[in-house]
Amino acid sequence: xxxxxxxxxxxxxxxxxxxxxxxxxxxxxxxxxxxxxxxxxxxxxxxxxxxxxxxxxxxxxxxxxxxxxxxxxxxxxxxxxxxxxxxxxxxxxxxxxxxxxxxxxxxxxxxxxxxxxxxxxxxxxxxxxxxxxxxxxxxxxxxxxxxxxxxxxxxxxxxxxxxxxxxxxxxxxxxxxxxxxxxxxxxxxxxxxxxxxxxxxxxxxxxxxxxxxxxxxxxxxxxxxxxxxxxxxxxxxxxxxxxxxxxxxxxxxxxxxx
Length: 258
Ligand code: FPP
Description:
With 258 residues, this protein is an alpha/beta fold. Helix content is 40%, strand content 13%.
């Protein structure tokens, strides 16, 4: 039997640890750091990009399931501002993936009433990637169900700096006073502003056993619940998502109160 203890000596989560209750609160906003594609491929003696391709299939599966469960926003960390440091071939593959994803999946998104949103420094993407995301946003803009929010060329520190610069400019131009700067006015400048009442993830998931945030939604996760699993992203399943939600449902969220 597989040990319940991981390399760090911590207990690993079996998938039936906290049975998910459809009748209890479903997190409105789930954000996922999809990690472990490369290791999944390496374990199978495949090139790293095979892991990314399989990871794309997992995105399709999890999008459909999250939408069925009634999740309002699913944010997926698909490419960080730091991922440009990877070898050119891998970066090129990752820039082609959104094209393939939307080419094959937009009809399903329309059928599921899912709306696509993309946050990140979109203007820095290669033209074919930028066009694919813009087309997907356009083609799903009338959908009223779950928002599938891709973080693409996204980095939270840069997002915060940009927001700060925009506010400073408004102050400089007398459009805003210092006294008017508060959490609400600041949030209007963040890349999550378009998510309205669901800007903050209720549940943040990271796969592959890594337990860090990697420059993801630093402002927005102030009160998020975290769920870490050793499962590699290509192996992530509907069952694991439900387990994460089951654990979330057992948490006592106090937002600093009692
Ligand atoms: C992290 O795994 C994963 C990424 C940097 C890319 C995530 C992309 C996908 C899951 C594909 C889906 C994307 C779209 C747009 C549909 P890693 O490569 O860091 O894995 P490792 O830590 O095992 O090397």
